[in-house]
Every structure is written in structure tokens, then in C-alpha cells.
Specification:
The structure is a homodimer. The first copy, chain A, is an alpha/beta fold. Helices cover 44% and strands 17% of the residues of chain A. Chain A folds into 3 domains: 44 residues, no CATH class; 125 residues, Rossmann fold, CATH 3.40.50; 130 residues, Response regulator (Rossmann fold, 3-Layer(aba) Sandwich), CATH 3.40.50.2300. Chain A is elongated and about 85 Å long. The termini of chain A are far apart. The structure holds a DNA duplex.
DNA sequence: TTTGGGATTGCAACCGGTTGCAAGACCGGG
DNA sequence: CCCGGTCTTGCAACCGGTTGCAATCCCAAA
């Protein structure tokens, strides 16, 4: 039935319908410069042969592609840890881009690689980037800006470039409120890097919610890591030494929270009876550990879709957006 | 310094060096038809201006792109479960493709979508596919074959098309041996779909290892699910009812194994004291649950790299390969 | 000195789209 | 009947690469 020979160019289609290349091109592009009746005829034949236009040719001609690069950290060689948070967001981004008719190229870049922007942007393969890397992020942002490559990032944009960001302040507050409602009066905090604006925001929200209850985060009950498990364990150990009286811990990433729970267990503390624990991110993991981790959820799917939409909007209009997406507390067993 | 104006075409570069387009094209392509000295001169200038050739144009001219689509299941709208196993493999594929100078397009397709092959292959955006979907996989394989689109899949290829596959038989055997060495004599099996060749292989390996010790898997101690958690819980429940004497469970996926562990706990069985549990896949998750899951590892990174390499080899030579990658038992606490 | 052949290089066509511009068809008004 | 204007359509140039073929140059062999 559909064994008709493949059409491999607009010219063949044109010949078949009896019009010129240009007319076909315009018809497929939905231009108003074509007679409705002719357009219908062309589209009918196109559908019948299920014609697909050649995208490389189109991109060449248009001087712009419809592909977006999703840039995430390379998980080096070995069974190294992929960036789980980034990976979960990728699904949302893919869905968002798909709706808008864009494709997603997955780019795993090594932290010390600066070359990818040129390789992918200057060569015309991608029209823009979604930046999810953590290491060296500021430098990469700068490089992108320098090249005038369109991009969006998850995290703070500060009005200078597009971003989608969780409501970090509210996230911190949610954690603090949860502790308070559970009667905890001596909560501790484990941050990511102390100079990471997301971390300071979370801390600010946390502190002011505590302040609302007349509490203040004792300096001895504040420690910083780098979002990784190892750092989470180390921070937890340090906190226990410095402030053994703590009865709750709010960590700025699920991985640190999980590591903290392990360390607590190894020191004979029960979670949540002795120490309540709250994480951040709501990785898929969080619901599998035991006790299941109470955590602040950033709605990965929504974040992904917004990253996609706002970047495409920027490509089309140059409109810089800094969107904040709501967070919510996912109450499980650890706090 | 490097503020030289951008070179946006081979022609500009050519003018700068004082040669023709063709010569530049050949020099960049490493052709032997160019004088070594000229080639060096061209490359030097190219590097100085860090020139990137326009890939859409190149692909158009060559009639083939250097992009591979990694096809995985769309995780529909909501906070739906992404295919964790696929996602972990993706990292390996990305690394493998990168080494070979290919790019990776991430394609999340809905199970009932048949159109993507045309959209991506006929339009010339991708040169081939890596197929990771589970639902409707046979049909999609058929469609790909019909269109003569180059692809490779994880799982069984049966000589008809390229594949990379874990050593399922050995995986099953490893699990059985572990049970035996732990003194378990009444092990149960939870498979994925009973007609999935990977599952039957695992079962075959498992059964024959048991047979080596004079045991036989009682039919009452065999159940089938679909790799998902829900099905794992259901299967486990059924097994407990039908064969309450069981002292071990080998599940064909980590998710089913984890669900089984939960169900066992809810029925008052201790893992591993009362019932030992072994999973399959070694998802990142496996080491986080408690007790940490003993499981059969398929070396995701290696699998990913091989998928990349074998597909590219096929693109270049038409050589169909069916590779089997070794599996290993990761001993943790659950068995 | 002429001739043959290898090494380099450039010309120009082609890949398959898009689009500015001109041309033809057809309309109503003057 | 002529003119200007609106609709449609096609021509041909262009996007930036690749590559077959012809042209040129140089050197050794005859």
C-alpha cells in the first residue's frame, strides 16, 4: 500500500504535484502566499507519501537549528555518580522541548572542558543551551555570555540571564516549620558551599522561620558541605561533635541528608526519634531509603518544562526571564 | 587578544590563507590531497581563529549526520517514573559516542508513537538509533527494520540486528550460587514477563545452577511480574501465600526486589535472616535501600559504551554484532 | 628537448531547503 | 479599453560545506 517510493526532496514532491519548489516550501511552512486550494493539494500528497523535509538543509538555509543542548556533568569513567538531579530534570526538559518542536541534544561535559560552546554553538548544531553543571558553573556562564550564546540555567539568574529557580527561601522555611511543629528546638543545618546563593537563600528562609518562633540557629549547629554524600557525612560528624544536643538536621541536598542519616545511625542515634532529618531535592532515591526521607521537593518535571519554554521564548523574543517555581514539603518518615 | 572577528565559513578562512575552499575543506578533513605545508598553514589559521565548520551544511553535503538518537520511554506527564536503568546507561552511551565524534540526541517517545522513526531518520537529523524502550519494543524493532534504519538495542538481537546484552544466563546462575553458598535450599524466583527472552535466560541459569546442587525450583516458588515495583510486591505476596516455606527470593529487577523486601517486612519476615533477596540491574538505588540490596550488576557504563561503538561500527561497515557483556554479583546485605 | 606522470590546487556542480523579486492572471474603477 | 492593485506562482540566488574533474607545475626519464 504505502510502498510508494520515498520522496527525498521538496523538488520531487513539487514535480509530483506539478508546482515549483518554492510553492511547496511555502505550503509546508504554512505561508499565506499560497492559494488555499493548492496548499491543500500539496499537503495531501505530502501526507500520502509521508514526506519529511531534510532538516540539515533547512537549518543551513535558515541559519539556525531547532536543537537545544542539555548540558550536564560528565560522570567520568568508572561507575561514577551521575548527577541524579540533573537527569531527573532532563525528562521534563525533553517533554517541554518536544511540545515546542525542538529536539534535545544531551551533552555530558567534563568540568575542565571549555570548548563545547564553540563546538556546538559556532558549528550551528544547537540553537541554545540548558546549563545544569555544578562545578565551574560561574565560569561556564561567563563563557556563554561572552559568546552571546543563548542559554538558561537552573538556579540564580540575577536578571542578567535566563533562569528557573526553586523558591529556596520558602524551602528553608518549610523545613524549619516542620521541625518546629514536631517540637524540635535545637535544629542544625548542613549547607552546600557557603557561597552558593541557593544555599544562603535556603539558610535565610530557615533562619527567619526559626526566628518567628523565637529560636536562633546556634553557629555550632551550622556546617557546610558540597552537596555530596561524603561531605554530608563529614559535616554531620562535625556537628555531632560540636553540638551533641542537636535534635534535628536540615541538609541542603538529599544525598547529604542520606549520608547524615547513616552517620547518625552509626553513632547510635535514631531517626527521627532522636534526630529528625530533612533533605532537599526529592530525588527518586528519597522515598527508598529508610526511614523514608522527608524532603523539600522542587518539582522536577515542572522545572524542566519551564527551562524549555523560557529558553525558547528567549530565543524568539530575547526576553530574559527569572522564574521561581514553588517548592513543597514532602512529609515522609525521617522528620 | 582573541577578539578577531569570527570566521563563519570555509570561504572566509580560504580567503584569509589565500587558497581555495576546496583546499581548506580537504585540509580540515585530513585528506592526503593537500601539500603538508599548506595543510599546516591552514590548520594554524583555523586554530588561531578557532574556526568551526558548519555542521548542518556538512551533513547536507554528506547526506548523513553524526548524531545518534537514544530512544527511551517518555515518562508521561506527572512525577512519573523515568526509566532509571535507561538513564544510567545513557551516560555510558554519551561517553562512547563522544569518543567516536558522534552526538547524542535524547528522544523520549510515547509507547503508542510510531512516527518518530520517520521524523528523525527520514529527515536526516540522526544517523541511527539506540533503542531502550520496553513497551512495544518488538513492534518498534520491526518498524525500524522495515525502514532500514540503522539501530542497536539492549537485549536480544538474535543475529538479525545489532544488540548488546548482559549475560543473563550467568546472572541467574550467580544468584542461585549465592543462595546455595548461604545455605538457602528453598529459593523463589520473580521474573519479568514470562515471555521475555531475557527473563527466560535468567531463569534458565538460575535453575541449572540449582540443579547442580540437586535442587529444583518448585513451581510454587516461581512468579512473574513486569519489572515494576507494584508487580514485584504482588508477586511476592502471591509467593508467600503459595510457598510460605521459601527462604530466598531472586527478582529479575532491582525495583521488584525492593518491593519484595518491603512486602516481606510488612509480613514480619526479616531480610536476610528469614528470606535472602537478590535483585538485578544494580541501579544506583540498590545501595541505598536497607538492607542494601545484593544484586547482579550489568555494568551500565560498559554496556553504554558498547552500544555506542557497535552501532557506529554497524553504520560504517554494516557489521551486525550481538555482544554479550559479563555480569557480576554485587554482594551487599540482603543476601 | 620532449614526454609522461605524480603531486597540488582550483573550478564548478551539487546537497535540499528558503526567500527576494519579477512576472502573469485576474479584478474593479475610471 | 486602459490602468493600478491584489493574488499566486516561479526563477534563481544563497546558505556552507564536499568532491569529480580539469589544470598547472615540477621533475625525471627518454
Amino acid at each position: 500500500m504505502n510502498a510508494k517510493k520515498k520522496l527525498s526532496s521538496i523538488a520531487e514532491l513539487a514535480a509530483l504535484v506539478g508546482v515549483s519548489k518554492s510553492t511547496v516550501s511555502r505550503a509546508l511552512g504554512g505561508s499565506s502566499l499560497v492559494n488555499e486550494e493548492t496548499k491543500a493539494r500539496i499537503l495531501a500528497v505530502a501526507r500520502e507519501y509521508d514526506f519529511q523535509l531534510n532538516l540539515p538543509a533547512r537549518y543551513l538555509s535558515l541559519g539556525a537549528s531547532r536543537t537545544i543542548a542539555f548540558v550536564t556533568q560528565a560522570c567520568c569513567d568508572s561507575g561514577d555518580k551521575p548527577d541524579l538531579f540533573g537527569l531527573e530534570i532532563m525528562g521534563g526538559v525533553a517533554a517541554g522541548l518536544d511540545e515546542l518542536g525542538y529536539d534535545m541534544l544531551a551533552l555530558y561535559v567534563a568540568p575542565e572542558d571549555d570548548d563545547w560552546i564553540a563546538r556546538y554553538f559556532d558549528s550551528g548544531v544547537v540553537a541554545g543551551f540548558i546549563l545544569m553543571t555544578y562545578e565551574n558553573k560561574p565560569r561556564q556562564l561567563e563563557l556563554l555570555a561572552e559568546r552571546e550564546a543563548p542559554f538558561i540555567t537552573r538556579g540564580l539568574g540575577e536578571g542578567r540571564y535566563c533562569s528557573v529557580n526553586g523558591d529556596n527561601r520558602r524551602g528553608g522555611a518549610l523545613a524549619a516549620e516542620r521541625f518546629l511543629s514536631r517540637g524540635r528546638r535545637r535544629p542544625a543545618f548542613i549547607g552546600g558551599p557557603a557561597d552558593d546563593p541557593e544555599v544562603t537563600e535556603r539558610f535565610a528562609g530557615y533562619r527567619s522561620a526559626l526566628a518567628g518562633a523565637g529560636l536562633e540557629p546556634a553557629p555550632a549547629r551550622v556546617a557546610y558541605g558540597d552537596f555530596s554524600e561524603e561531605s554530608g557525612a563529614a559535616a554531620m560528624a562535625a556537628l555531632l561533635d560540636a553540638a551533641p544536643e542537636l535534635d534535628a538536621v536540615f541538609a541542603a541536598s538529599d544525598l547529604m541528608a542520606i549520608a547524615a542519616m547513616r552517620l547518625l545511625a552509626s553513632r547510635g542515634k535514631r531517626v527521627p526519634e532522636d534526630v529528625a532529618v530533612i533533605g532537599y531535592d526529592d530525588l527518586r532515591l528519597a522515598s527508598y531509603v529508610s526511614p523514608a526521607l522527608t524532603t523539600v521537593s522542587q518539582s522536577v518535571t515542572l522545572t524542566g518544562k519551564l527551562l524549555a519554554r523560557d529558553l525558547v521564548a528567549y530565543l524568539q523574543s530575547g526576553q530574559v526571564t527569572n522564574r521561581v517555581v514553588p517548592v513543597e514539603l514532602i512529609a515522609r518518615d525521617s522528620a
